[in-house]
Structure formats: C-alpha cells, structure tokens
Design brief:
90 residues, 4-stranded antiparallel β-sheet, 31% strand
Amino acid sequence: MAAMSPGRVDHAELFFERDDVLGKESQLEAALSRQPGVTGVAVVPHDGASIEMCVRVDFDPAVTNPVILEGALARDGFTVLSAAERPDRP
C-alpha cells in the first residue's frame, strides 16, 4: 500500500442554516471529527445578524472531500447549504 504524503491538508468551509445547528455545535463537531481523513474542525464565530453558520474543516484530500463529508453529515441529520474548498498550496 502506498504511503500518504505527510502534511497534505486541504480546508473547506461548510455552511449551515444557523437555526438548524444552534445548540448542536458539539454534535456537529463530533460528527465531522469521526470522519476518516478529517484532521481538524472549528466553528467559525459569526455575527448575530447572519442566518448562516460556518464550520472550517481540515482534511486529507487523499481520504475525503467536502462531498463525502456532506453525505456523512446528512446521515447524521445535518444539512450543508454550501461548501467552499480551500486547497492548501505550497
């Protein structure tokens, strides 16, 4: 089996309707953290006027991607409104 390239991490920002996630942030973080390839999860602070909540996810692109994560979250009852991938470039 080929070894994964160490240190390769991409980032995605996943957006949710704030009211769907409010009070469930720890459940959302746990759902993402247990996905293979996810190396970090952080809820991005938001202003009170926003109807969206953003979660930044660090992941190994050789193992997962935002589409896979969106499907996994749907199975856990979370609906991703949109996702923006931010590849890490050298």
